[in-house]
Amino acid sequence: MASSVVMLDRGNNTTCTVNLHGATVVSWRVNNQEQLFVSKQAVFDGKKAIRGGIPFVFPHFGSWPCGPQHGFARVLPWTLERPPERNPATGDVEAAFILTDNEHTQHYWNHAFRVTYRLILREKELHCHVQVVNPSRDRELCFQLLLHTYLKVPDVTRCQITGLRGCTYTDKTRDEAVFQEASEGVQVTEWTDRVYRNTPSEHIVTNVVSGRKMRVLKYNLADTVLWNPWSQDVQRLSDLCAEEYRSMLCVEPGQVTSPVMLLPGTAYEGSMMLQVM
Ligand code: TA6
């Protein structure tokens, strides 16, 4: 069964569409230009993560002995906490989604939690704010969090990603070996799957849709994952067409190397801002 979607419409053909399955942003259009990649073979029946947009990775990044890869948040139904509402002063449109512990999450992870995901659609920007609350009176809450952002690009080999020079990264295509980035503008010309640690708050991605640049700003998300399956990895993905890897680039702000540790009764806040330049 397809799950319902919520659209934030700012006017002037600027919209953001969210599927309540995983609170997955599945479309972000600026002047009617789609900025996010969604596979032609993406599955919307609620049975698996949506291949594209911005899947919400929580409480675990990567393979997880307790539950699904990349955690359960992206494969469970979220609730619309605040329907889209326009700010009369700025014209921005905001909506909020919520996921709390329930019988599904308890099946994997025996922790109480409340995640609130607030989206703000501005003229050329999409703000993704995350709050995680630990409601427990006596138990710590330890989790990873990542916004698995699929940027739509005309040709991934023509993109460059700045803000990674000097950063240490784990290369999952080279047996998790650790390297230091030497390039100011990282290019993707092969299977790429890297977890960059403690990266700067800003990345610029060149040659995205319409040859524009995309600014990726992050707050309280220390790491950046860079992924493109290329021809090697794409073969194992049933929901990605063979040649589609050339039209996508995953730049994923996250807190993965050092998980968040929330003391009882405290909250974490982190955010990503995407801006078409
Ligand atoms: O974010 C990069 C990554 O961890 C890759 O290793 C690859 O597995 C990708 O996520 C997609 O994972 P998925 O579970 O959505 O197929």
UniProtKB/TrEMBL annotation:
Its EC number is 5.1.3.15. It comes from the Eukaryota. Pathway: Carbohydrate metabolism; galactose metabolism. GO terms for biological process: galactose metabolic process. CDD domains: D-hex-6-P-epi_like. It catalyses: alpha-D-galactose = beta-D-galactose; alpha-D-glucose 6-phosphate = beta-D-glucose 6-phosphate. Keywords: Isomerase. One of its GO terms (cellular component) is cytoplasm. Belongs to the glucose-6-phosphate 1-epimerase family. This is glucose-6-phosphate 1-epimerase. The lineage of its organism: Eukaryota, Metazoa, Ecdysozoa, Arthropoda, Hexapoda.
